[in-house]
Design goal:
Blueprint (H helix, E strand, L loop, with lengths): L1 E2 L3 H4 L3 E3 L4 E2 L1 E8 L2 E5 H13 L14 E5 L2 E5 L5 E2 H10 L4 E5 L2
Antiparallel strand pairs: 1-5, 2-9, 3-8, 4-5, 4-7, 4-9, 6-7
């Protein structure tokens, strides 16, 4: 199920996910050049990331990844800042989304 929302209002510190660690992220699809939140892919990607164990780098494991409500939007959250932008994007695409956004809030 997809929910079309104005992401800028609900996820105010949005940064394009890549090459850094983040504390929260979502999966998105692109509709008419606008990012549309993909709830199903976000939840599945978060579960995939929680199971990840690829090494000792910060982004290679996310033992604290869990879904959390942030301003009415369910996001994949990591209080330990384990979410890597490229890794989140990979899991979002694996679960049917077209991309991802991650934040440093």
């Amino acid at each position: 199920m997809q929910l079309s929302v104005t992401l800028a209002l609900l996820f105010p510190l949005l940064n394009v996910a890549s090459a850094a660690v983040h504390n929260a992220g979502i999966c998105v699809d692109w509709v008419n050049k606008a990012a549309v939140y993909n709830a199903d892919a976000t939840e599945k990607a978060c579960g995939n990331y929680k199971m990840r164990n690829k090494g000792d780098e910060q982004w290679n494991q996310c033992p604290d990844c869990l879904m959390k409500d942030m301003g009415g939007l369910n996001v994949c959250n990591s209080d330990g800042w384990h979410i890597g932008g490229d890794e989140l994007d990979y899991y979002c695409k694996l679960n049917g989304a077209q991309g991802s956004y991650a934040t440093k809030s």
